[in-house]
Each structure stands twice: as structure tokens, then as C-alpha cells.
Amino acid sequence: EKPGAEINLSALCFGTRIISVYALHNQDKLSSLICFSPGIYTKVEPKDRWTIYFSPETGVRGPITDNSLFTRDEEALTYIDNDPLRITYAKGQQFLDGKELGNEAEEELEEIELPVLVFLGGKDEVVNLDKTRKFFRKLKKVKFIENPEWYHSTFFQDSHVPELLDWMERN
After folding, report:
1. Of 125, 145, 171, nearest in space to 7 by CA
2. Mean per-residue pLDDT for 3-20?
3. Which neighbouring-strand residues pair with 32?
4. pLDDT (tens digit, 9 = 90+) per residue, 55-96?
5. Helices (H), the chain
6. 140 CB contacts (<8 Å, ≥6 apart)?
7. What is the dihedral of CA 125, 130, 133, 138, to 10 degrees?
8. Quick check: 140 and 129 in contact, CB under 8 A?
9. What is the distance between the alpha carbons of residues 140 and 115, in angstroms, rounded to a whole number?
């Protein structure tokens, strides 16, 4: 149906805002979207966001300062701690830009015709799972893979790999 469109675009958390907006404008170039713990809706309240924006040293438990929010797996935590690309500090502009991307994705989401695979962990302390499910259920072709024992970084879980590969093959 789409010559040359064999790209399964994937992202974790905040990155799902970016790939959702990209997909809205480039569906003809993609086969599917794979969203690991999509950060369209988070558990951080507006009052907490202002604290994070203006006072990152206050000890607010947030995804940038506390790696245990992502996983409890020691090997994965070591990987995150040593990842040179890990975000350890964000300026307020990043949060404002993220909000704008989230708004654009939410407003135009129903226009995505691509198959979308969404991974959610029941112990995720970052993503608001109820709002996220409601958000993605608006899509025509969505599949959820959920595990009550997973934390935020669902891509560290090997148990989903066979199902992920099978889904990619079929889409």
C-alpha cells in the first residue's frame, strides 16, 4: 500500500510527543508508531512543574532527577546512570515546548491512520495511565501491551520482544 514505507518509528515518554506530531504530517513515509510509556499525559501536577522549572535543586521527585522512576532493574539503572545522552537538567523552555507538542498531538490525533503500538507499565510513576489509554483509544488502529509489573522504561523489559517483533512484521 505504501511503497518504501517500512519505517516503524518508536520513542519513549517525551519522544512520543515528537513522533506523534511527525506522524501527523508524514504518514505516507511510515509503517507504524511504537510508543513506549508515552508521555503525553504525566503525573506531574502543574504546581510541581513550576517547581521543576524554577528550582531544580529543591529535591522534587521528578523524572530528570530520580532514575528509580524509570525502572528498579539494577542493570538498567546502571545503564541510565552512565548514558552520556541522559537528560539530567531541563530548562523551562523544554517543558513549554513539550506542552505545545502535546497539545498539537492531542488536537490532531484522530487523523493518524497508522497502526500504533503502546506499551504501558502498571508501576509507571511518570505517565498518567488512565488519561493515556483514553487518549490513544481515539485511534483507529491501536494495540496496547501492558504489564502490571513494569515501570516507566518499558523498553527495558525483554518479555515483550517476541510480541513486538511479531506486531512489526504484520504492520
Report:
1. 171
2. 80
3. 8
4. 444 443 344 567 777 788 888 888 888 887 766 655 556 666
5. 15-25, 46-54, 74-82, 92-108, 129-136, 161-170
6. 112, 113
7. -140
8. no
9. 8
